[in-house]
Request: fold
Amino acid sequence: MSKKPSVVMIGMGYIGLPTAALIAKNRTYVHGVDINPKIVDIINAGKIHIVEPELDDAVANAVKEGYLKASTTPIEANTYLVVVPTPFKGKNEPDISFVEAATKGIIPLLKEDDLYIIESTSPIGTTEKMMELIYKSRPELKDKLNIAYCPERVLPGNVMYELVHNDRVIGGIDLKSTDRAVDFYSQFIKGDLHKTNARTAEMCKLVENSSRDVQIAFANELSLICDKADINVWELIELANKHPRVNILQPGCGVGGHCIAVDPYFIVADYPMESQLIGKAREINNYKSFWCAEKVQTAKLQFEIKNGRKPRIAIMGLAFKPNIDDLRESPAKYIAQKVLQNANNEEYYIVEPNIESHTVFKLTNYKVAADKSDIIVFLVAHKEFKTLQIPENKVVLDFCGVIK
Ligand code: SAJ
Reply:
């Protein structure tokens, strides 16, 4: 068996590590690179540093069989994949410095006919920018490399399945690059591989998540209107969706996670005048969280006026969506924080059934919290909450359709 490295994967996070394990399962040697030495040690011990079903076995096997090894520096290979984060800087502007640093790290290793692919969510034109960066310091390689963009589109919690079965969009900087990247992915992906150019592929990723954000904003806007108009928004949406060509999503307490609430800004930052609707959707979804926190404040004051005492309040859910333990960019967490900032001697029970303990919030069991409180605030539609029997005398603020 040749252990010659074929693939260098830069970034061993939520997408890089599962992708590395998948490629390694296909008996292709992967050299994983991460700037964090702790992550490198964990992977080399055959273990994982993130929560994702089936990933533990995949990594353990890949490392045991010698097809996956990690280090803090890249080595020479045939294919280089850049799967690093693209965070924000300043006022919601994408920061591609990690992509740039990863690219700079491999420039000295590149040779004719190599394949370089970016998977990181990136602003339009990033692949071309990286091409220029590469050719500037290695002019002798001009037009001799294959350079492409291929965004990931997996759903956290179902990554190992979706990585293999989802369709992928692959865009090269020229036709030869696109074909080479398609050949590469076809070795381990069963979904269809759709060819395009790099700019369209970059935009496609941003548009997928912006589309969902805009649709959720529509549902959230309806929830605000219905609250004033005294209409049950859940019933309304269910009825409207009976139309064969209408499919409205569900309102919630805002939009969270590290993709849908983030990617639309990558378009808005570069095309502010042209992306009015996309920008407005972000505003509406952010406003919805603020509105929920205000509603809790009002309910508290009304309770006190009516009952002559402070209420006990259950805050149900902290995760960014139902049935997961991920609190990153969570609107529920933001609302819980805001409500606690406004606390005035009320008693609070904070609930998140998917995590054991939290550094800031003291957590209470969901049944105990619902039982002891006067006001129950549903922020996330976790499955446990749907089983609760709630007595008539409780005030319920259902922001995510638990009761409906
Ligand atoms: N949400 C609603 N109403 C809905 C659906 C979702 O309020 O009807 C909220 C959720 O509660 C959550 C947020 O939207 O706060 C995002 O959740 P999600 O399940 O829609 O998406 P993510 O962030 O877990 O994953 C998304 C996926 N993109 C799309 O579905 C278009 C996934 O396929 C992408 O790979 C991922 O973003 C990514 O990495 O970009």
